[in-house]
From TrEMBL, chain A:
Name under which the protein is recorded: Response regulator transcription factor
Domain HTH LytTR-type span(s) in chain numbering: 144-247
Source organism of the structure: Pedobacter fastidiosus
SUPFAM superfamilies, sorted: CheY-like (SSF52172)
Response regulatory domain sequence ranges: 2-115
From TrEMBL, chain B:
Protein name: Histidine kinase
Organism of origin: Pedobacter fastidiosus
Presence of the UniProt keyword Kinase in the record: yes
Signal peptide range: 1-20
Keywords, ordered alphabetically: Kinase, Membrane, Signal, Transferase, Transmembrane, Transmembrane helix
One term of GO molecular function: kinase activity
Keyword Transmembrane listed: yes
Pfam families, per the entry: HATPase_c (PF02518), His_kinase (PF06580)
Lineage, top ranks: Bacteria, Pseudomonadati, Bacteroidota, Sphingobacteriia, Sphingobacteriales
Amino acid sequence: MRAILVDDEQANLENLQVLLSKNCPEVKVVAVANNIESAYDQVNLHRPDLLFLDIQMGKTTGFDLLNILGEKSFEVIFVTAHDHYGIQAVKFAALDYLLKPVDPDELKIAVSKATERIKSRLNSDQLNFLLNQIKRTEPSIPKIALPQQHEIRYVSVDDIIRCVADNTYTFFFLANGDKILISKPLKEYSDLLKPHGFVRAHQSHLVNPKFVKSWLKEDGGTLLMNNGDKIPVSKPNREMVKEVLGK
Amino acid sequence: MKKIIFILLNLIISVSAANAQKGIDFSYNYAAGGKLLMCVDSLAKNVYYANVFPNQPNTYFSYLPEVNNLGIQIYFRKNINIEHYRYTILADNKPIVVNKSINKAQLKDAQAGDEEVFSSTKLGTFSIKDKIITILVYSIETPLIIDKSVFYGKLIPKAKIKAIGKRFTTEKGVDYSYITDPKEKTNLHLTNKDDELTIVKDRTEIDYIYYTSIKDKQTNKIIFESTAWQYGGHIDDTHQFSPYLKFDKSIFKKSGDYEIIIKPSSFSRYKMLPKEMEKYTTRYTLSITLEEESYTKKEIYSYGLMATFIIGLNFLLIFQAVKKRNKKKLAETTQQKNIAKLQLNSVRSQLNPHFLFNALAGIQNLMNKNEIDNANRYLSKFARLTRNVLDSKELISLTEEKTLLDDYLQMEQLRFGFQYKINAPADLDTENIEIPSMLLQPFVENAVKHGIAEKGADGNIEIDFKKQSADLILSIKDNGKGFDATKDYSGLGLSLSKNRISLLNTIYKETPFVLNIQSDTNGTVVTITLTQWL
């Protein structure tokens, strides 16, 4: 698997090269670039399978590189130090990322996932989705990528009624009646969707308040959804849920 | 007395006298009061005989408007001492006969009823047209008991109100004010000081036949009735006492027109037609204005409605005020919570230098020992811990907490070489149960630094996540030398942690966090119970 590493810091490029050679011998680094112009050239020249892409590079971003690259016939693993906005976008697109300093074990997992994706070729859609989400200038309802085994659903946050945890899996209940199982823990989506108004009513339940009909007093607190579903509210969350619903 | 009259009446109707004279029908006797019976013109239809009055005992009043001549007989029972009886006859108040005894020679037996036989004699025959004949009968044994029969051949006059008065309280007591010779409609303003009203009637010889009623013209209900006249306070032009009656102001519940009706009583016995009765009836209207109204149901209803509205309005205002206050209170609570959250954040960032720099030193040590792989591994652990502090997430899942504790303890293992275990039962949904971040970290840090640091490889730390009904119990056990848990250690970790738990309790009021520290020379157990958390 041929890879190009893009990072504006020489130390990071060297670190990652060492880690890859030690932990992921199947990855052959064909080029490194420390700015997006150079990266553009290298990508066009080498047509790599995999791109390790830093998000923040001076005034430019890794997203800028993706924008100018047009057709994307490679997988991307984002690598970032501490970039809340960028990571959020990447997570919404259900793309993979590593945090610096890179953990060798996490690197191994990310590379093996990328190998899987290269086989199924799902990624370019997600990348375009990511770039579209970032381009949005006017505040609109964001979409989220929900990766299933054979397809990725792009769902407007407004169309999610609620999520239910099943151990490390999460069920999504959508407004059109679909029920989707995603192999990520609820916690991950709870962190992603809370900024968009969702409430964690219960350890196993994340709810979109837009679909809540009323607050029932039964069992110390229950949410009645528009479709008649009843969602328990656990005691520690009661006040917070009331607060959010009261708004 | 009345009863006797009726008994007599019944008996006497059947008694007949033989001879007819001057058109008088002697075959038909009417009771005339006391021991008297009378016969009247055969053509007379309406004979209102022997009326009695509640306030005028021994007086019998016969109204004879259609009678020209009148024959009077007196009847005695057989056992009576007839010689004791005297009678006096007056025509228009002038005596014709005075204190005359009964002429025993003229007494005849007269049968009344089936059994009893009376001794009877005529007292005379009188012209009654436009006259008043009065006959007084008494026994000299009881001269104070005088039967007085009045035969009224004149038209009964209508009563006349001479004055309407009201009594009012003054500083000295009471005083009166009068409206004399009132019109048929009289206005009367009644204040709080007025308490009693008086009606003064013109004096006649037959005051006792009149009775008075007062009618509420709005409701057509009689609100006052009196058959009695009083004499004493009021004197007319002829220096005679005028009859008057008194009643309380309180009979007037509200302002409006009231009718004073004065008419002869007892005639109802004869079923006099209302039109006929009206000839004898006096009506006055009193227009009452009350300073203070007493309210009727309808008024109470409408005023009640108004009052309800006003009270309702007040309630609304109070409700709004309470709501506002609650809102304020809620805002205060929210503010309190926000402050607590801010303080928590600051506590979190205060905690981190303790292990951050020690961890860096540990990694430095690995680098110096040329353990590059381990250095890499621990560096990323260090980064994860640091990131967790910097992200200052409010809640993390138990899985995340376990990872962080693993990261931390593995780093510390580099320095101290102790053993540790993190236990969570399989049925605990660690992936989805969340707890406040950095809750256990400081206690674990204490367990390492103050507990097992000295023991090296013998040191042991055991961390348990447990579920007890709805409570989540987190415990950290070390086998260090222990410390006096009752003492307030200045060691930054412990006091900060206690502070942090009290801040958490400000936020999670309904699910209190209970901290328990048990320590002896065999070690320390720190337990944090998150009550009702699950």
